[in-house]
Design a protein that fits this description.
single chain, alpha+beta, 4-stranded antiparallel beta sheet, 4 helices, elongated
Length: 238
Amino acid sequence: MKTLLFFIFLPFSNFCFSQSFDDEKVAAVNFITRMYNASPFEGTKQLENDDKNYSIVAVSLTKTNQNSEPTYYSKALSKAQVAAEQGFAEPTIKFEMLFMQDSKENKKVTYVFLCETLSDFVVKTIKKKAFDGARIIAAPTNKYLITVVTLENAKYTSATMRDKAANMKAKQMTNILLNGSVISSDAVIKTEETDKAVNISNTEIVKENSMGFINGLELLKSLEINSNQTTYIYYSKI
């Protein structure tokens, strides 16, 4: 049994500004800082600016004399990861600390993180280079299996039928990645006799034998990246 693995590694560091999300980072940080100072919050929030969406997580810790700055950061990051997955209702795979605010009055320190949800990361990747199939994404704390299926809308009589077909294809692609498969083909010649002539057509039937059972594959998002097509993104934690 052959197992094929395709890894997308995400760079990560525990230091402020060590990882860049895009070339407009300074403007993004200024915008997020301004919005947070205007209305401080705890937990998760989506901010929009110039057609860009930012996923933000803010967490606060009570300061003690026993903890050092790296210890505070480590605790804040762990707390932010839990808050992000609960708040955004999906895995979050990138975290970058934007700024820290220290309050001497209540002895609390607040960390504000910019993060990226799994669906945003996959959609951005597809838009750069479209693909169908199963991949494994290695994030700093977890690994996720994602499967992308794109179907032509016109080939299906209803959205329900298209959804079912996408689910079956996603399971098939995932099974091939994890368990391998054997592909064979049979050539079939069909003849149709009419009053005028005998029509002969060739049809190739492709058979694929694979082993394994796919469990826990969930629909992450469906959207139309290209016109007249629907792209389905499934995922599972591994």
